[in-house]
User: Fold this.
Amino acid sequence: MTEPVLALMGPTASGKSALAERLAERFEGELISVDSALVYRGLSIGAAKPDYPHHLVHIRDPADIYTAADFARDAAVCIDEVRARGRRPILVGGSMLYFRALIQGFDEVPTIDPAIRVAIEEEARISGWPALYEQLAAVDALAAAQLHPNHSQRICRALEVYRGTGRPLSEWQQRDSPGVGMANTDFECLALCPKERQILHARIAHRMDAMFDAGLIDEVTALYQRGDLHTDLPAIRAVGYRQVWSFLEGELNLADCREKVLAATRQLAKRQITWLRSWPGLDWVLTDAHGHLLRQERADARNAGSVASTAMPQEPVRQVWKSRIMQLMRNF
Assistant:
């Protein structure tokens, strides 16, 4: 029997990459990145590009649009290729929409009348995207919870789907059948996260300082100077890149830029945790400030001091990776 594919999830700065690398080394695995920023060439420092080899890193130009459906197709091919080499595929990252597209699949949204998008963009020009975000929250709270109030592209998409079909985008995305080409594949889903939120915030702040020290501004400047990129592109809207872009355009001073990067990264982590809490049957691996294992708990475990929360159960998957992770982390 083929063992399940590990899907190692978690908020930004939770230590996923370090753990995944150890797993790959110990259990003959290959890592598949699940990161909507790392797919773009030129996004390295601000996207925390790991040194360890990952599939699906730097595969698209930042001027391109790369969707969750694109990822699901590419990841399905990667999984098959890794298995054909006699190795174990390990999915690791924090782009929850990518995970959902691959593992749970999407219903195919009907074609939306382009006039609807034009009307939404005109409303945004007059009222601003935060006002459109409030409209979205009123009709699709689940989709809104995963977005920043200024994420124009995704707010527009969610609103146009609702206005064009009468159904929230989140409903279209909640299909029970597996994603592209994955009908015969089981996934063992685990989330890695510090137990205390302040630990995660401290890690985020430390990593942000390291990114600026490593040359984040120079990296974004190189993208800015290309002349063909803009803030409506997903690559440039990535956390860290959008804020530094505003600094380069003179909209922010450096101190304010750093503060906004920090705030945006914390908001991203909060959205990721919100999404993970709704993932059916997810196991949480909780760590301390040093990354040491505190405990593992099921999604339906109730603990007021933990980031883990309740979720609807799903059909159990044969678990092999949890014991491997416990074995490694006890030796951290």
